[in-house]
Amino acid sequence: MSERKKVSLPTLFTKKASGEPIVMLTCYDYPTASFQDEAGIDIILVGDSLGMTMLGYESTLPVTMDDMIRHAQAVRRGAPHVWLIGDMPYMTYQPSVEDAIRNAGRFMAEAACDAVKLEGGAEMADRVNGIARSGIPVMGHLGLTPQSASALGGFRLQGKSALQAKKIVDDAKALEEAGAFAILLELVPEQVCRVITERAGDCIIIALGSGLHAHGQLLIYHDMFGLYPKFKPRMAKVYADAGNLILDGLKQYVGEVADRTFPQPENWFEMQEDEYEELKKLMEK
Ligand code: KIV
């Protein structure tokens, strides 16, 4: 089997130029990262959604840089070939350009990430510019931006009216001009995604629940496999119901321990008979 080549920025832009869709997924842990790397995923996002999917918070807001670094390190160990993006958590870039650069740098230095992502439009252009000018590739994130869910009125489609859509289109241009190598469009109408993709210059557009007209697609891993029982977004496709498969296995294990059908001889080890006899004699002394 030939060794997979490391995905680089030129790899991604070559795909964009040739019209070959870029495949992106979220990931938060080592074993899943190994599977994703082997499956040929181009980009992994270590999303701050891990606050909900892995840590059980109600939102992404309590997630810290240290949480993100720990998970990103594990993902990098499992997926050495993918283009790895660290998602900047709440209030690690909003306060100032300097905060944004320092925290972006942590993803690169401590977790061997290839890039970072942050949420927001024109108002974040100076953060994007500062990070990009420090030599760190930055992905923007527009549309439904979960860190601002309260201000956006919840987890809902963004850019439904022409005026709202125009703002998203303008924000995308502002991020591109600030130096973003890519922009994620989450939950915007497919026409808005199409307009932004058609107008994109040196910038890769990735869609999450925003239609086919982007340079690539993102899904949340836990949605793909039914692993987040609290919520199943309409935009997600469930490729396998791993959540219920795991639940069935757990119930079977509980039952088999209770009725002593687990373990069986193939699940344990025995010592040689003469050693056992010797042990019994030793115990009598
Ligand atoms: O944290 C995350 O996984 C994200 C996605 C919702 C795009 O930012």
Please explain how this structure is put together:
There is one protein chain. This protein is α/β, with parallel strands linked by helices and 285 residues long. The chain has two domains: 232 residues, Phosphoenolpyruvate-binding domains (TIM Barrel), CATH 3.20.20.60; 40 residues, no CATH class. The protein contains twelve helices and eight strands. An eight-stranded parallel β-barrel has the order 1-2-3-4-5-6-7-8, surrounded by six helices. Strand 3, helix 5 and strand 4 form a beta-alpha-beta unit. Helix 5 packs across helix 6 and helix 6 runs parallel beside helix 8. The N and C termini lie far apart (59 Å). The relative contact order is 0.10. Bound molecules: 3-methyl-2-oxobutanoic acid.
What brief labels describe this structure?
285 residues, alpha/beta, TIM Barrel, eight-stranded parallel barrel, 12 helices, 44% helix, elongated, binds 3-methyl-2-oxobutanoic acid
Structural class: alpha/beta
> What CATH first level of the largest domain would be assigned?
Alpha Beta
Q: What is the residue-mean pLDDT, rounded to a whole number?
A: 96
The biggest beta sheet reads: 8 strands, parallel, barrel
Q: How is the CATH topology of the largest domain named?
A: TIM Barrel
The strand order across the widest sheet is 1-2-3-4-5-6-7-8
Gross geometry: elongated
Low-confidence stretches: none
Number of domains: 2
- Percentage beta strand: 5-15%
